[in-house]
Each structure stands twice: as C-alpha cells, then as structure tokens.
Amino acid sequence: MEKVKMKFGNTAMYVSVKEENLIGVIEANKVPEGKTEDQIIKEALENPIDSARLRELVHEGEKVCVVIPDVTRAWQRTGIYLNKVVEELNEGGIPDKDIVFISALGSHRKQTRAEHEKLLGEKLASRFQVMDHDCYDKDNLVFLGETTYGNPIYINKIAMECDHIVITGGIVYHLLAGYAGGKKSILPGIAGAETIMTNHSLSLNDNLGESIKAGVCPGGIEDNPVHKDMVEAASFVKPTFMFNVVMGPDGQIAGAVAGNYLTAHEEGVKMLRAIDGVAIKEKADLAIASAGGYPKDINLYQSTKTLINAREAINEGGYIIAVMQCSEGLGGGKEIQDIILNYDNILDREKFVRDNFSIGKFIAYCMCETAYKYNVILVSDIEQELVKNANITVVKTIEDALNIVHKEKGENIKTYLMPHAANTFPLLTK
C-alpha cells in the first residue's frame, strides 16, 4: 500500500491507497543537477535565442524600461536574475539613471516599498526605485491600435517612451493564457484596464450557457483566443529582449531563456513541460490532491489551480479530494465571494461573469464549474456553509473524504495522488 504525504497549511496529512487501485503519483519530473542558479542565468543571457546579446542591442544615451513581475510572483527569484540583467545593460553603456523599472501589476493592487525591495533584491534596492503600473490611470496610457479580436490596446506610456523594453518573468502553466511569461508582461502586465478585461473576456464562448472556450486552458495556445490576442498586443510593443525563468520543484531556478520574446518563450515552455508537465496514459475516477501547503492553500481562491490541475487527471463525473487548509476562508474580493456564496447554479454564475467581466470572477467561476462537472470534496478548515451553494463538500480528514467516495463508488476506484497539484499538470498521452 502506497503512503504519501499531503501538505496541509503548515502541517501535513498522509494518505494510503491500495496498490491495485493506484495508477500513479503525479509529481514533477526530476531536474538535472550540476548547474547553479547563477550559471543558468548567465548561460541564458550569454546565449540568447534568435537575438543578439542584450548588451549589444542597447546603446549609450538610450533609455531602457525593464518590466518586472509583481510581488505575487516573487517566487520567481527576481532579486537574483535582475542583477544579471542590469549588468548586461550597464555593459552595453546604459547607466543606472537611464534604467526604469516598471512592475507589471496588470489589474493587481499597488505595492509597498518593502515589496519593491523584495522584487529588486538587496543589491539593486539601494540603486533603483520601482514604478507600479496602474491600469486605471488613463493619463499614463497610450493607444497603440486594435487587435484582430477587436481589443483596443492601451499600454503604459512611460514604458513606450523608452528606447527599449526588456520583459522579465517566469513561465508556468496559466488558466487563461496557456502559459505565463513572455507576452503576459505586456498584456495584462502593463496594459490598460479596458485592454485587460476585453482580452480576458475572450475566454468565454459567444452564447450564454456555452461556458469557457475549449482552447482556453492551462497549456492551451493553438485554439486559445486569449493567448493569441496577447501575442498581437505584444506585437504593437515589440519588446527588445526577454528573460524568463522556469522553476524546479524545490523552488529554485531550474532553467532560463533569453532573447526573442516569442521564440525564446517557446523554448522555455519546453523546459516547463519537461519539469511540471507529467505524462499520464489514462485518466482515473479519483484524484487526491494537495495544493502543496501554505501559502498555496491560504484560501480557496488561491487554491483554485489545484482543482484545475487535478481535474486533468480524472474522468468527468469523477472525484477530487482536495487537501487544502484555507485558513483565511474564501479569499478574494466581494465579487469573487458573491459568485461562490450567492448563486446555486452554473448558468446564473456564468451570467454574473459575463456582466462586467473580471479575472477574479472568472477564476472563481472556473472553480465552481469544476465542482459542477466533478465531485469535489475539500479536506479543509473552511466552513461548509461557505461552499454549499458551489456543490462542494467539506470534511476534516482524508479518511472522511474516502469514506464518502467508497460509499458512493465502492472501494476499488482507480486513483491518482497529487502531492503538489498546484504545480504539476497532468498531460494525457495517446
């Protein structure tokens, strides 16, 4: 019998599954050892893809905007790699006074000075200030044109007034864009609110009741209008250079790519898939999944990715036992809580999302849609009353959850275990 640890907040639970019922444990693939983070960063910057080195692309007298993530993505270890990016710019003749840092907040909240310092790291924090992008500040936006999807592209004016824009960030699976990194530094990163919401609303089918477009999903790019619209938006901006990292399961930088913001990103996606994309040969009827503990399971909103990834491993109508503490309850703002609390059917929730679309409402809707298509049982401290309208059952232990499943489906149910479901994405191979 396989016994696996499932993190729960700052503690852990253990689950045992009979070997004849266990299809597999879905974990990130091993990362080749031997290179330090500094070596990985250095090699990427010295060997850019489809581009000259950054130091060769910039020239003395020019102004450079470096677009960086916001603090919610500080796990990308920006304080390490931004040093190397600045060194490249300095070597290219760009002094500190001609480098502008803009944090790609998208529609996120403004940050504190302490958060800026965390992003820059100790070495750079004493040399630079960070400017937060404000998607609602229309006076600091410039109109660049309209995409073929009818999206008016408004971009940060200060960034566009610079001679070069360098985008930085990390590549992970993304619910709407397929993959984060690359073009996302532009849209939603430094785009206007109208541009962001118009783009994100492309995730829904044209007609009420048809829900989310099939191509809009983690890893989806071929038939994903959200991704394609972002790429078009970035083509108006034409970033000079990109640097993106890929993280390993230990939270360290496992890979990095630099150069052309399209083709370098494609190579980064390959790295990501080799680490976090876990091949499975069949789907199960049960997935027992942990978000990976605190802070990934701090609230239900933050834990949505766990449910989205876990559903990729099971058949529709199957069961997800999600191990996530949710010590801060539902999380999110009022509109996010409204969609969970105040609706009892998926159609009315979809209407609510379509009315003044926002990314927060969409993510909450995805969670509710998962509970509509699958049987979701939370092993959590969250109150049952908060999620009853979302068709989610709450219990205190994995054993309690398994008792429900076994009572309804019997004890011989094909199962996957996902100890780090917020980061691992099952890929069904044919």
TrEMBL record:
<feature type="domain" description="Lactate racemase C-terminal">
    <location>
        <begin position="281"/>
        <end position="420"/>
    </location>
</feature>
<dbReference type="InterPro" id="IPR043166">
    <property type="entry name" value="LarA-like_C"/>
</dbReference>
<feature type="domain" description="LarA-like N-terminal">
    <location>
        <begin position="8"/>
        <end position="206"/>
    </location>
</feature>
<dbReference type="InterPro" id="IPR048520">
    <property type="entry name" value="LarA_C"/>
</dbReference>
<dbReference type="InterPro" id="IPR048068">
    <property type="entry name" value="LarA-like"/>
</dbReference>
<protein>
    <submittedName>
        <fullName>Uncharacterized protein</fullName>
    </submittedName>
</protein>
<dbReference type="InterPro" id="IPR018657">
    <property type="entry name" value="LarA-like_N"/>
</dbReference>
<dbReference type="Pfam" id="PF09861">
    <property type="entry name" value="Lar_N"/>
</dbReference>
<dbReference type="InterPro" id="IPR047926">
    <property type="entry name" value="Ni_dep_LarA"/>
</dbReference>
<dbReference type="GO" id="GO:0050043">
    <property type="term" value="F:lactate racemase activity"/>
</dbReference>
<dbReference type="Pfam" id="PF21113">
    <property type="entry name" value="LarA_C"/>
</dbReference>
